[in-house]
Design brief:
heterodimer, A: 303 residues, alpha/beta, 2 domains, 4-stranded antiparallel beta sheet, 9 helices, 31% helix, B: 267 residues
Chain lengths: 303, 267
């Protein structure tokens, strides 16, 4: 990983009374990287993000953002933040909010604001309280991006956005990373992360289960496949084959679930008979996620 | 700091207008009703033998006759209605400055900007002081404009009206500082409101009871209602006993709420 990450949480721990919301979490995002922060609801994503922003004080560990301790006022102007539950004074319009924030940041680029509102399709003259959920989210995205920050910390940014706007948003954070910004964004759905993330970090019950590239995740994923043979094959043909988690053999068809490399299973299949075709079934990565979400007691090696 | 102050003022201008209207309306009502009270001399004898606690709460303990302009305004307005109106306005606003906005969720997004929690809180409290000053000014101007037409200015200068208004405003400010401090330290708007309202009511009752219960006298020294009612600013002007204690209390309370705000978790 880069020597000088723009977002760095080191062994972050947060306890609320007896509840441990985040435990010993280490996470780094370098400039130019987009990291998808994934986990089921209540896993500790928002708590982690609020520690990175300095809204919550860690019980243990420490975070630095843009080279300063989390929440440091001197670097807040270089951070773009979108909260998971965006709330703005309902009487305020996006134009008013953005010019107010511009004054606080000492920087207001109306051309950039116009570009962003145009690309996202937001009417900035309507009061926040009169906007739909999706349009409110656009206000949040524009205020997070309009000062071209070096660090973007976004909590479930695509909530409420329709697919077209979602795609435009992913393009926007791709552009931000392209000019060197570090992007951390959380989500509980995979496909949007898969499309743009350099890496994914998966959190479950407050602990980081894995961080790796999407490709590495796919390499380790559980695959389901249907094998079709020219003649009936014996039932026990896949017993004890490395990687095969489950096998159902009926006559000329075998249904397999394979963890990791599929080589040994394929070799067993070609040995067993004439293999006619292999049909992949199911969403591999989605499967892996479900297993990661559920079995934190068997952590996958961090690559 | 200035953008937060001006934004707060801008945001509250609508509510300020309604409160100003209410204060001016009260002043108008008092002026219109005064001639009737003035000519009803039975009122003075009726109110002559009140228990001292009630007299104190009506602002009549200094020997003011109810039918005199000073006694009338004190008993009907400066000793109760005005401070309570200003108190409700100021305490509600003070509970919002940190805790209310925090509960609404909009404080967090603001604090992602390069502005510190303490500065946001102080700027908003400064805005509260400005808004309260506007209401006080409306009150003095309305009374000064209306009083001559009904004889309410007899023996009463504008500076005495201003003194009584300022004293009532400072009482409201002191209780607003309670709401501010509790809200800033805890992030709980209900706690902020309960603390300020509870203390305001307790202080009011205490000031009445203390006239007859000498054991309560020491506690009066920290009771804003005592600072206001005992100094009788409409008769004596704004003595230091009327302005210094609430100002000191306000500054101390505001300062007391800030250290915890700077370091605690946001809700």
């Amino acid at each position: 990983m880069s020597a000088d990450p723009l977002i760095a949480g080191h062994r972050l721990t947060k306890r609320f009374g007896r509840l441990t919301a985040v435990s010993d979490l280490t996470l780094e995002v370098a400039g130019g990287q987009i990291v998808g922060f994934l986990g089921p609801n209540g896993a500790g994503k928002t708590t982690t993000i609020r520690m990175l922003m300095g809204f919550l004080r860690p019980t243990g560990g420490a975070a630095t953002v843009a080279g300063a301790p989390a929440g440091h006022i001197g670097v807040r102007g270089r951070i773009g933040y979108l909260p998971g539950d965006l709330r703005v004074d309902p009487a305020m319009t996006a134009t008013q909010l953005l010019s107010w924030y511009g004054r606080l940041r000492g920087r207001h680029d109306q051309r950039r604001v116009d570009e962003l509102t145009g690309r996202l399709g937001l009417d900035p003259s309507r009061p926040f309280g009169a906007l739909s959920k999706g349009n409110r989210q656009k206000v949040g995205i524009v205020q997070a991006l309009c000062h071209d920050p070096d660090v973007l910390i976004l909590d479930e940014p695509t909530t409420g956005l329709d697919p077209l706007v979602q795609r435009e948003f992913l393009t926007l954070i791709g552009e931000a990373a392209g000019r060197g910004a570090a992007v951390l964004f959380s989500s509980h759905v995979l496909p949007e992360v898969e499309r743009v993330a350099t890496r994914v970090a998966i959190i479950r019950a407050g602990r980081l289960v894995t961080t790796s590239t999407v490709d590495d995740l796919l390499d380790r994923a559980r695959r389901r496949m249907e094998l079709r043979f020219a003649e009936p094959v014996p039932a026990g043909v896949f017993d004890g084959v490395p990687g095969v988690a489950a096998a159902e053999v009926h006559d000329r068809t075998a249904l397999l679930a394979v963890d990791g490399p599929v080589g040994p299973a394929m070799r067993a299949a070609t040995d067993a008979g004439t293999l006619l075709r292999v049909n992949p079934a199911g969403d591999d990565l989605e499967d892996l996620f479900v297993s990661l979400y559920q079995h934190s007691d068997q952590p996958i090696e961090v690559s | 700091m200035l953008p937060v102050l001006t934004q707060t003022m801008h945001r509250r201008r609508g509510s300020l207008a309604w409160w100003a209207l209410a204060v001016a309306g009260m002043c108008g009502l008092l002026s219109v009703a005064y001639p009737t009270v003035r000519d009803n001399h039975e009122l003075d004898s009726t109110f002559a033998n009140l228990p001292p606690g009630v007299e104190a709460l009506l602002g009549l303990s200094g020997g003011n006759a109810l039918t005199s302009p000073a006694g009338y305004l004190d008993s009907q307005f400066f000793a109760n209605i005005l401070p309570i109106m200003l108190l409700v306005f100021a305490v509600g606003l003070a509970a919002w400055t940190v805790a209310g906005d925090e509960a609404a969720g909009s404080l967090e997004l603001l604090l992602a900007n390069p502005v510190s929690r303490v500065r946001v809180a102080l700027a908003r409290f400064a805005a509260l002081v400005c808004l309260l000053a506007v209401l006080a000014a409306v009150c003095v101007l309305a009374l000064a404009a209306l009083a001559p037409s009904t004889g309410l200015n007899h023996d009463l200068t504008v500076s005495r009206l201003a003194a009584a208004t300022v004293a009532a405003t400072l009482l409201a400010l002191a209780f607003a500082a309670v709401a501010f401090a509790v809200g800033a330290a805890t992030g709980s708007r209900p706690a902020a409101l309960a603390a300020a309202a509870g203390l305001a009511v307790t202080g009011y009752v205490l000031e009445g009871l203390a006239q007859q219960v000498p054991a309560l006298h020491p506690i009066r020294l920290v009771d804003p209602w005592h600072w206001l009612l005992a100094s009788d600013p409409i008769r004596h002007g704004l003595s230091w006993q009327a302005w210094a204690p609430p100002l000191i209390a306000t500054v101390a309370l505001v300062a007391a709420g800030l250290p915890r705000l700077a370091h605690r978790d946001l809700r």
